[in-house]
Design goal:
Number of strands: 11
Distance between the termini: 43 Å
Radius of gyration: 17 Å
CATH architecture: 3-Layer(aba) Sandwich
Helix content: 40-55%
Largest sheet: 7 strands, parallel
CATH topology: Rossmann fold
Mean pLDDT: 94
Order of helices and strands: EHEHEHEHEEHEEHEHEHE
Strand order of the largest sheet: 3-2-1-4-5-7-10
């Protein structure tokens, strides 16, 4: 099984790479991220099961670097996991122009472009996994551009699932709640409490791939938010 994982050097992406390399005997994982030090460490641990590419996914040209690496090192893709993402704790009007562009590129545009460009390397039975957020169902007043970019990915993923059904390619939407990663600290706040371990998200994603599920909510009780629809309930 050949798997491409973005955001592979931390959080859910790193946990997923580790789980795949330890639990799947014939796996080849291509990890995409910016932190070369962590990627090298993963390579040293998993040798032939893991390869990596250091790119900045806020730059749209990085998509074609990924395509070239897939072509040269994998040949085909069984699973694409669009996991990379980040947020910034700022009001909408406090964001710098570059921050808005980078957020939208990483969280929305790059996942769509990667899927578009890598489809030709995917056969019947392949899977696309888009890691979104359960936050699309609330109004994230402190992470507004992040929330906007993720609800765009949610919308596009719903349509993409229908488009790729004709090619027998499964599309999985993943909606995590608060996860114990570096996300919030990097976004600008340290006092976020609670949350689920990234390992639990990785396990849920692997299970969903194996069972060809369509949606994953972590924790599972967050699925109740779907009944409300994206009505954007304000939270402070």
């Amino acid at each position: 099984m050949n798997v491409v994982v973005t955001g592979a050097s931390s959080g859910i992406g790193k946990a997923l790479c580790e789980l795949l390399c330890t639990s799947k005997p014939n796996v080849k994982v291509l990890g995409i991220a910016r932190n070369e030090l962590v990627l090298k460490e993963l390579k040293s641990r998993y040798d032939d099961k893991f390869n990596y590419l250091v790119v900045d996914l806020s730059k749209l040209d990085s998509v074609y670097e990924v395509v070239d690496t897939v072509k040269s090192s994998l040949g085909y893709v069984d699973v694409l996991v669009n996991n990379a993402g980040f947020g910034i704790y700022k009001d909408v009007l406090s964001h710098e122009v570059k921050e808005v562009i980078d957020l939208v590129n990483v969280n929305f545009i790059t996942p769509i472009l990667l899927t578009k460009e890598l489809i030709r390397f995917m056969r019947e039975g392949a899977t696309v996994v888009n890691v979104i957020t359960a936050g699309i169902y609330v109004l994230m007043c402190k992470l507004p551009i992040y929330g906007a970019s993720k609800i765009a990915l949610h919308y596009a993923t719903e349509v993409l699932r229908r488009e790729l059904r004709r090619k027998s390619i499964n599309v999985i939407s993943v909606y995590p709640g608060i996860i114990k990663t570096e996300f919030h600290r990097r976004a600008g706040i340290d006092n976020v409490r609670g949350g689920v371990e990234a390992d639990e998200v990785a396990k849920a994603i692997v299970k969903a791939i194996e069972k060809r599920e369509k949606e994953v909510y972590i924790p599972r009780y967050l699925k109740i938010l779907k009944l409300l629809g994206p009505k954007l309930i304000p939270i402070s």
